[in-house]
């Protein structure tokens, strides 16, 4: 092979030493730049060799997140019990989204048009953000990872906006799981953009017919099973006997999912996310999803902290922050604290 370099024609053979030198340099850089593991953060390979990060808290709780989709696929308590649902048929093969865990729905939730219904963030490879701006957070957690997503040229064809999406996934000292999203409009020509968003969390439950959700009583919701028409929820806790797909509006910061059989209550705390989606496909839809077991609907419930009814608009330079904090507590948890009216008044 011969190629012209700066007016001088060189043969490939004479280039070998330089190619080797460059190769050795890059190999060294790869070694030094590869993130280093610690007792709290382990960089590993998961299903199909996809890169993942394992977070471990000193008391035994853990979480796993794939760089593909910045997708949390596991969250375990300090007894090693799995708290998130992940389908046994989940496909870990891009560009298919992983079924279960916490898919990130951005820049849209349930939309139509050129984007997939839940956007593209969950179908992209994120990278480790090794130089994040200062992160205002009250957690002293050492078990955290910062990931970043920027649009590819392909993305910009379908969604012509410049953004930086930074996501911190952290395990708190008590095993709480915290996801903090910071999305900044980095457009230089003065163009604002709007988006909708959801943390599409799949909770693992022992039996959907034994689950109650508190905190959404009496609220308005859009029913995805009835053309997204608006209704008002009844006055007591939600229970489940059939398919449900509802977007609750202006919801309180705290929602409780009570698993009677396990005597376990999941508490969802959210900030910057006024809406909450509740979804269970039930039997018919379960059978229609190839990456979901026919009877797996019995063992999961999605309660998704979201911003849907009122899209978020960012001017250039503006940043939006959306926080989700999940905890799992014994069900002696007094449900009275989740009275939406009391919580809405900020008690
Ligand atoms: O969150 C509820 C929902 O919008 C349902 O309508 C259903 O489509 C679900 O999300 C799963 O969507 P996905 O694109 O992950 O298959």
UniProtKB/TrEMBL annotation:
Family recorded in the similarity comment: Belongs to the glucose-6-phosphate 1-epimerase family.
Q: What is the protein's given name?
A: glucose-6-phosphate 1-epimerase
Instruction: State the superkingdom.
Output: Eukaryota
Q: Name one Pfam family in it.
A: Aldose_epim
Q: Which residues form a coiled coil?
A: none
Q: Which Gene3D superfamilies match?
A: 2.70.98.10
Keyword Isomerase carried by entry: yes
């Amino acid at each position: 092979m011969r190629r012209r370099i700066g007016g001088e024609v060189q043969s490939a053979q004479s280039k070998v030493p330089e190619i080797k030198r460059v190769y050795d340099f890059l190999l060294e850089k790869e070694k030094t730049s590869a993130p280093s593991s610690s007792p709290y953060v382990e960089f590993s390979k998961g299903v199909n060799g996809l890169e993942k990060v394992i977070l471990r808290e000193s008391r035994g709780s853990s979480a796993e997140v794939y760089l593909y989709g910045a997708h949390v696929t596991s969250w375990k308590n300090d007894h090693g019990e799995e708290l998130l649902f992940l389908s046994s048929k989940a496909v870990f093969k891009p560009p298919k989204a992983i079924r279960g865990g916490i898919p990130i729905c951005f820049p849209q939730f349930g939309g139509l048009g050129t984007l997939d219904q839940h956007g593209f963030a969950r179908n992209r490879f994120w990278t480790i953000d090794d130089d994040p701006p200062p992160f205002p957070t009250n957690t002293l957690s050492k078990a955290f990872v910062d990931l970043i997503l920027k649009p590819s040229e392909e993305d910009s064809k379908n969604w012509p906006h410049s953004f930086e999406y930074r996501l911190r996934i952290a395990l708190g000292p008590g095993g709480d799981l915290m996801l903090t999203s910071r999305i900044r409009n980095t457009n230089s020509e003065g163009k604002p953009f709007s988006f909708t968003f959801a943390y599409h969390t799949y909770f693992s439950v022992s039996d959907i017919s034994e689950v109650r959700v508190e905190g959404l009583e009496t609220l308005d919701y859009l029913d995805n099973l009835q053309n997204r028409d608006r209704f008002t929820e009844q006055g007591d806790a939600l229970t489940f006997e059939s398919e449900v797909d509802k977007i609750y509006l202006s919801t309180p910061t705290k929602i409780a999912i009570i698993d009677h059989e396990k005597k376990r209550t999941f508490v969802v705390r959210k900030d910057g996310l006024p809406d909450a989606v509740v979804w269970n496909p039930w039997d018919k839809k379960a059978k229609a999803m190839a990456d979901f077991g026919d009877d797996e609907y019995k063992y999961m419930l999605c309660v998704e902290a979201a911003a849907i009814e009122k899209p978020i608009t960012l001017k250039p330079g503006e940043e939006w922050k959306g926080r989700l904090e999940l905890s799992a507590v014994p069900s002696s948890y007094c449900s009275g604290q989740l009275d939406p009216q009391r919580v809405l008044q900020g008690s």
